[in-house]
Amino acid sequence: MKYIDEFRDKGLARRLAETIAAEAHPGRDYRLMEFCGGHTHAIFRYGVQHLMPPNLSFIHGPGCPVCVLPMARIDHAIALATQHDVTLCTYGDLMRVPASERKSLLKAKADGADIRMIYSTQDVLRIARENPDRQVVFFAIGFETTTPPTAVAVKTARAEGLTNFSVFCNHVLTPSALQTILSTAGPDGVQLDGILGPSHVSTLIGSRPYRFVAEQFGVPVVIAGFEPLDVMQSALMLVRQLNDGRCEVENQYTRAVSEEGNRKAQALIDEVFRIRPEFEWRGLGFLPNSALALDDAYADLDAEERFPVEFAPAKEIKGCECPAILRGVKTPTDCKLFGNPCTPDNPMGSCMVSSEGACAAYWSYGRFRAASLQPKVESRS
Amino acid sequence: MTSDRRFPVRLDLKKGAVDMSHGSGGRAMAQLIGELFQRYLDHELLTLGNDQALFMPPPGRMVMSIDGHVISPLFFPGGDIGSLAVHGTINDVAMSGARPLYLAAGFILEEGFPLGDLARIVESMAQAANAAGVPVVTGDTKVVERGKGDGVFITTTGIGVVPEGILISGDRAEPGDVILVSGSMGDHGVAILSKRENLGFETEIRSDSSALHELVAAMIAAVPDIHCLRDPTRGGLATTLNELAHQSGVGMQIREDAIPVRPEVAAACELLGLDPLYVANEGKLIAICPPDKAERLLDAMRAHPLGTESAIIGEVVEDPHRFVQMETDFGGSRIVDWLAGEQLPRIC
C-alpha cells in the first residue's frame, strides 16, 4: 500500500532501533507516555516495545475516548434509549463498554432498546430521514478528531429542518487531560520524561496547544504519527531532546500537522459547540474546560435538553484499576482483575473493551511476552 | 417441468413474495416446493417428495456437519447466501478429510421476501451443489412473520465418508508441524463489508466462496498424514489458529510476511481499522502437517486451482499458554489473540 508500507519498513525500523539503542544513555530511564490509544495499539500490534532498549519504556496515557468516558454517561445513554424510546446511534467501540450493574449498550439492545451501531454521522442522518416518526439520537464521542463530523451533522440537520435528530454530546478535549496528568506527576503520580503527543488531534488543533506542557511542566513533547515508524522516530526525537537537555514541542507528523492546525475545522467547531465548564473523565475526575456541548444556538438539537432522564449515580466496579491505569500510575498487570475475571470477552472496565485500551492491548498482544521474549537490540553506548 | 393441476396459476417469480401460506404445509407450500425448490434442486431423492432422503450408506466412517447461514447482504460480489450455504457445509465436512456425499437444506423465509430473490438464491444453490457434485436431497421450509427474520436464513447439513487410514482432527497438531494456508486471507469478509448498506466502498474484491473438497482430496492423495485441516471462516485465520492451538495444547509461531493478503484487502482493512487476520474466508483452508511432508503438501495445494497461492506461514511450537505468536512484518513480535466479540472499526 503506497503511503502506508513506507511507514512499516522492517529495515528502517531496525536502523532506527539501533540508533535509539546507541543514543539512549544506559545510566538513565526514558519513560515516554503515549497519550493516544492509537499509539498504544501501534506499539503492541507491531511489537515496537520489543525493538526498544530496556531502559526506554512506554507509559500508556488516557488517550482513548472510550476509556475515559465515565460510566455515568453510558448509564445516561441507556436511560435515553429506554426512558424515551429513542433510536440511539453510536460507534461500535461503545457497544460493549460496561455501564452500571454490568449493563452495556449491547445488553440494553438485547433487552429491546433500539440501539444501532453506525460507521459515520452520515448513517445517523440517513436513519433520521428514513424514520421521521422516531426520535434519533447520536451518541457522539471522541477527541477533537471526531468533532468536525458531528458539527457537520448538526449543521446538516438544521439546514434540512430534521426535527427528529439530536446529539448526546461527549466530545472531550485533550489539553485539559494532559494538564491534569502533569499536575499530579512526580513521586505520587505518574513518572514520565516525555510525551508522544496526539497526532490526529493535532491535525485539527495544531501543535501549539501543547506548548504549555514544555513551558509549564518542563516535559518535552513530540507530536507523533500513528504508524510504527512514526512512533519509533518520535521516541528517538524525545531521547535526543532529553539527552540534549532540551524541552520543546517538536512535530514528527509534519505530513499532516502544522502549528496552527486546521483553521476551517476550528471555525466550524467554534460555531457549533461551546466549552463545558467541567466534565467528568474516567480516572481523572471532573476536569475544567475539558469537553464540548452544543452551542446555545443549537440547543434544540441537544439530546440532554430534549430528553431529561433519571438514573442513579454510577458505581465503579470494585477493584477495577482503570482510573489509575488511565493516569499512567499503574499498568494493566497491576490490576487484580486483569485476566481474571476481566478479559476482552468479559470486560469489567472500559480499558479492556476498546481496541485502543491499554488493558485490551496488554491482554491481546502483550500478556506473558516478558517471559517469552527478550529485547533484540542492546545499547551500544 | 410439467404443469400441475393443483396449481392452475404459476408462482409469480417476478413480482410475487413469500406469504404465511407458503409455510402452512398446505397447497401453497406444495407449490413453492414444486415450482421453486424442486425445479432448481433437481435430484431424484428430492423430487420423490418424501420427508426424508433414503439411500444406501457407503462403507467407512461417516462425517456429519450442520451450519446455519445468516448473512447481510444476501447477494455479494462472488456469491450469495445460497452458494455460501452449499460451500460452507461441504467445507465443514471436507475438513475431516471426508468426501462429501449429500446435503439437506432448511429454509426460514420471512413473510414478504420476493420470490424472485428466493429463486435466484435456490438456483445459485443448485449450481453450487451441481458443480461440487454434492446434491441437496432433502429439505424443509418455514415462514416467519414480517419483521421476525432477515429475508432468508438457510441451514444446511452435510454428510460424507472418510477414506480409510485418514485421521484429521483439530487436536493432532504437534510441535514441529508446519502450518500452511491455501491462499489469500480476508477476501470474503471484505467483499461482504463492501456491500453493507452503511459502508458501500468500491472494490474489485470478490468473495472466495468455494467448495474445497476436491482440493482436500488432492492434498490427501499427496500427503495422507495431514494432522489438521480447518477453514478459517468467522474470526478468520487468527481465531482458527487459536482454536487449533487450544485443541491440540500447543503454541503456534507464524510470520506476517508469509501470510498472503491481497493489497486491496489490506487497504480496505486499513481504512476501517480492521485486521485482515480476523476477517472471514469462505474458500480457504489451513493445513497442519509433519515438517518432512510440508513441501510435498504445498506442491499438491499449488497444483490445484483453488490452492495456487498456497503458502507455508509458520510452525507449531511447544507452549503451555497455547499462544499464537507472530513475527510482524515490522520486525517485532506479538500475540495473535482470539477475537473478542465482533471486530469493530475504531472511532478515530
UniProtKB/TrEMBL annotation, chain A:
Keywords: Iron, Metal-binding. The keyword Nuclease does not apply. InterPro entries: Hyd_form_HypD, HypD_1, HypD_2_sf. GO terms for molecular function: 4 iron, 4 sulfur cluster binding; carbon monoxide binding; iron ion binding. Transmembrane segments: none annotated. One of its GO terms (biological process) is protein maturation. It holds the Pfam family HypD. Belongs to the HypD family. This is Hydrogenase maturation factor. It comes from Thiocapsa roseopersicina.
